[in-house]
Amino acid sequence: MTMRRLALIFLLVLVVAAISCVAPRIWPTNVFASSGDVRICLLKHTPLGSGRDRVYAYLRFARYPTKNVDMRGQETLGYPTSIPASSAVIAVLPRYYAPFRVDIEAVYAFDSRGRLIGIEVNKYVDAL
Question: ∠ at Cα 111 (86, 34), nearest 5°?
Answer without folding.
Answer: 95
